[in-house]
Every structure is written in C-alpha cells, then in structure tokens.
Amino acid sequence: MLPLSGLLVVSLEQAVAAPLATCRLADAGARVIKIERPEGDFARGYDALAKGESIHFVWLNRGKESVVLDLLRDDDKALLAALLAQADVLVQNLKPGALKKLGFDPAALREKHPRLIVCSISGYGETGPYARRKAYDLLIQAEAGLASLTGGPSEPARAGCSVADIAAGLAAYEAVLEALIARGRTGEGALLSISLFDAVAEWMTVPLLQHEGGRTPQRIGLAHPGIAPYGVFTSRDGAEVLISIQNDREWRILARDVLGDPALADDPRFATNILRMARRSETDGRVQAAFGALATGVLIDKLAAAQIAFARVNDMAALAEHPHLRRITVDTPHGPVPYPAPPRGCQEAYGPVPALGEHTERVRREFSPAPAPAAAGGVALTPGRAP
Predict the structure, then answer these.
(1) Nearest to 238 by CA among 311, 308, 313
(2) What is the pLDDT of residue 345?
(3) How far apart, in whole angstroms, are the C-alpha atoms of residue 3 and residue 1?
(4) What ranges do the domains of the chain cover?
(5) Residues in Cβ contact with 318 at an 8 Å cutoff, skipping those fewer than 6 apart
(6) Secondary-structure percent of the chain, ordered helix, strand, coil, rounded to 5
(7) Which of 141, 149, 310 is nearest to 220 (CA)?
(8) How far is CA 367 from the centre of its chain?
(9) Residues acting as catalytic residues
(10) Max Cα separation, the chain?
(11) Beta partners for 240?
C-alpha cells in the first residue's frame, strides 16, 4: 500500500511543471487521470529520443492514465464534471482564466466540491500585472534574475535543465501534500496557486539580499561568489576538479597536506575566508599551481586522504557511468526506458507511460454520466463508481 493509494487526481496538464507534480503523486500511489487534447500534451512532440518517445514525456508521465477529451464538446465536458465530482485533487496548468472559460472555474469547483483540492500552476500567478503573460522555463530564468548569475563573466546563461519548471512542479507537489494533510483534519479542500516566478524568486533570496546589502553578486562560472578557494582547478593531465573549502581549518589542511605548502597554511594573509576573498586571484593561483603539478589520480588521492570536499566536473557520458547513479526502468508504448530514479526510497515498480488516449474508453465507461429516465429528460451527472 503506497501512501496515496485510493486518491483520485485529475490533471489538465502539459509540458513539465504540472506533469512533474502529478508524476510524484502517481509514484506515491494516487490514481492520476491525465486529460489531454486530441493532439495530446505538446511535450509528446519535443523529440523521439527515448525509443521513439519524447524524453520529457517519458520522464514525467509514468503511472498515469491518458484520456483524450475535447472540452469544446458538451459530452466531454460532462465527463470531466463527473470525474471532478469524485476527484480528490485537480491539478492544471492551462493559461490563467482558460479553465474558467471552459466552465470549470476553480473557485466554483471548490464551492461545489468542498473536499476538492484545486492546484493551478502558472507563470506569474492568477493575478498581478504579469498574470496574462505567456511564461516558459527559460523566460522565467531570465525574468527572475537567475540567468544573470549563471554562466561566466562574458554573458548570462541558461541553467542546464528546466529549473523553473522543476521548482514549480515540486512546490505544487508539496502544496498538494500539505492540503491533503489539512483536509484529513478539517474535511475541507483547498484552492492553491503556484507560479514559476515565485518558485525561482524564492530560490534567489541569497543573491537578492546580497544585492540589497550592497554586494551585488557577479557571474563567475564554476566558483563561489563568497568563498575562496571554492571552484574549478585543473590537474597536470587536464582534468577539471572542483574543490570546496568551507572553513579556515580546511584551508590549513588543504595548504599543508594537498598543496604541500606548510608556510602557506600558517600565512596570516590567508588565514580567514575574508582575507582569502580579498586576494582571491592569488589564493586561486596558489591552488592552481599546486594542482597543475599533480596527475589526476594523485591529486584525487590527496584530496580524499585530507577529507577535502571535491568533485569531478563530469559530462553526460561520465554521469551515465557514475557509480552512484540509480536508475529505474519504465515501460513505454515503444518499449522499456531506463532513466535516473527519483530521490526517494527503494520503491521497486513504477507505472508505465501511457499512449495518447490509451485509457479514454475505459474511463468513459467508468465515469460517464448515466442517462436519466426518459420521462425526466436531460442528463444525470452522477458518475459511476469503479468496480
């Protein structure tokens, strides 16, 4: 029995942020019914690199049921209404106001279904001057200032993965779990609003407060803006090794046991991080001179023996062979795909990635409103229960 077994989640989702949130809910045992347009979640078309499937879609949609609905059709709207009548959670990342235009205003849904948790994910939230702007991951990285601090001195850069989408998706997952706990105590659902901008802006607290405190951080590549030495240095045979010195005791150990320079370890000009930052070029130069005289294997052995924190600057080829990389294998319509495991416990099985509309007819039979008696006319909106 997984923690969320028995819960029904309905999701009108696309791309990354909302699918990540519902993927986590599915991993935890919730039944996730993913409502897709007739053409499907557009992330299905990003590429075909995962055995003919889109990498993003395979990553984020395991364990879900795919139901194709055209919400401009009355019968499909009725089916969605029947699903929501039984749902515990609705997650949606349509553009702000779109769900209301379709006849499913989140606030009205909460009033009609008091136990329902509605979580809306957007670029800038439901209100405010930018609420109607289109917003995608890289746009938010730029707008929230993250790109200005990413990369080297010459120009800003994109973070190497979709950090704004991921931040918002995980924030949504967290908010839904909190709302489920609260509902268990009060019986009441919740109306949640998560924005990509808020998610990234909160991550930017330290550089923002540094700026407001009079020390605006600058782009410095793979180095720390406030600690020295903390960055990348190159061994004699060209390997890039990143080290992190967190306190003055570690500096003395590095100087004495790795750099082989006891005098530097005792030099008062480098005794504190503040002093090392004040002469950062010289500090880094001393480290590089010593690292550059050592072969990679020797250097790594010295760092490990001295218990200095370090890392190799790996590429994707190195990650693929990394001894700590855990993988799961997920079935897809074109065959099993192995990829990195989520950072959680030892769950052994994960649900398959659905084909577009794979579960439409089954869900339609299960939830479609039953016709009212002929004399009454119209349509009854009482959904059928699962067998």
Answers:
(1) 313
(2) 62
(3) 7
(4) 8-204+325-367, 230-312
(5) 312
(6) 40, 15, 45
(7) 149
(8) 32
(9) 224
(10) 98
(11) 234
Residue labelled with tokens 């969605």 = 80
Size of the chain in residues? 387
Residue 313 pLDDT > 50: yes
Q: What is the pTM of this model?
A: 0.86
C-alpha span between 283 and 275 (Å, rounded): 10
Distance, in Å, from the CA atom of 35 to the CA atom of 52, rounded to the nearest integer, reads: 22
Does 8-204+325-367 carry CATH code 3.40.50.10540?
yes
Q: Which residues contact 12 (CB under 8 A, 6 or more apart)?
A: 35, 90, 91, 92, 93, 94, 99
Q: How far apart are CA 363 and CA 14, in angstroms?
A: 20
Render pLDDT for 168-208 as a digit per residue (tens, 0 to 9).
Answer: 999 999 999 999 999 999 999 999 999 999 999 999 999 99
Q: Is the pLDDT of residue 114 over 60?
A: yes
Partners of residue 195 on adjacent β-strands:
122
CB 87 within 8 A of CB 9: yes
| CATH assignment, 230-312 | 3.30.1540.10
What pLDDT is stored for residue 387 in this prediction?
A: 27
Write the pLDDT tens digit of every residue in 40-92: 999 999 999 999 999 999 999 999 999 999 999 999 999 999 999 999 999 99
Query: Which backbone phi and psi does 83 adopt, to 5 degrees?
Result: -60, -45
